[in-house]
Amino acid sequence: MLKKITQQIRQLRDTDSLLWLIALGHTFTHWCPATFYLLLPFLVKEMGLSYSQAGFLVTIRAVANLLINIPAGMLVDLIGKKSLLMALALLATGVPYFLVGISHSFFWIAVFMAFVGVGNYLWHPAAISTLSEKYPDKRGFAIAIHSIGPNIGEGIAPLLVGILLLSLSWRSVLFVNLIPGIVIAFVLWKFLFGKLESRAQSKNGISAKEYLSGMKKLAKNPSILLLVLVAGMRSMTQQGLHTFLPIYLTLDLGLSSAMAGLYLSITQTAGMIGTPIAGSISDRSGRKKVLTAGLFSTSIVLFILAYFRLSWLFVTGLAVLGFFLYAVRPVIWAWVLDLSPKELGGSAVSFFSGSQSLLSSLSPVICGFIADRWGILTAFYFLAGTVLVANLIVLAIREESKVSPALVEEPA
Questions:
Q1: What structural domains and CATH numbers belong to the chain?
Q2: First and final CA of the chain: distance in angstroms?
Q3: What is the mean pLDDT of each run of 10 residues along the chain (412 residues)?
Q4: Which of 180, 189, 285, 405 yields a CA-CA distance of 20 to 30 A from 304?
């Protein structure tokens, strides 16, 4: 199994660097959020916030992102300027966090938190639709490599930030956090932007009439709608863990910032290992089998962690949790793109991301409400339930052909 995956990675690396460059950009769009989650307990302590207020800061970001998803996807499909959108996404990723770092009231922190996801949600429609077109026969694997980006960013960032917090304030860390973004943006500008359009073989976009016709097809496909719901439920679990796991490790278990960062890094590293494995298997054996196994395993591990509360088991459990929780993400992306018209890749991604934002925006507030009244571990039970419901929905989805229908016939 691992030998085949290694061969696929070598083949893609040798034939085209586009995949790896886009994955690098994706790394930074998740670096900043991963940093903030570890800084959140220190912000909570300094500002004297409740669990509900901490959850609200994450929720307002997800709600604001809903306003970005649909326009971003429309621009990708109607204009086709994918490299430009990716460049803007990188610029919009780090600056709002910098503004959070210079704010000293809950109101202004909440205002700037509404803008911190702009870069992340501008990135996905352009990047994922590009990979879907470039690697149609290895779509699951290509999107899995793209998904390694956030695993790397979210794996390294907590570890480094945890160490920095031993000597710097959380505000200073947000200022330092701009440095990797500047470096990555320069690398992509040097080697990717200006070359992407020709290498990805993209075109100038489609007409508004064709766009509306395609969107109607998307909205009428029951499998896509169910997958959108599954993605949203899985995202609820991930967002809830991102928000309250650092708080639990730091404030409830009393771990140092460095140790909490190490725990979070273990989770992401395991996800980085599981992601290409799941994507490759789904290309050969089907999306449904892989998705069902991953979601079921995630719910079981969460229940075990919340119930037994054993420190030695917690570290092992986090690794297993990260392996399965993040592994299923590219499988869902690939399945949606399998069923979507190829000319609407950007809008399909936006529609997909919007559903995640909608449901994940509810998760921090709900978990904060539960944690304030019944304890933070009870919130983890709720998250285990959300991913279990997602698995039940997957069972109702009929696995269809991978061939994406075209809206417009291409000339022979």
A1: 11-394 (1.20.1250.20)
A2: 38
A3: 57 61 80 81 87 83 70 65 73 82 88 78 75 72 76 78 85 82 73 54 53 67 83 85 85 81 81 80 83 87 77 74 82 79 64 70 86 88 88 81 45 34
A4: 285
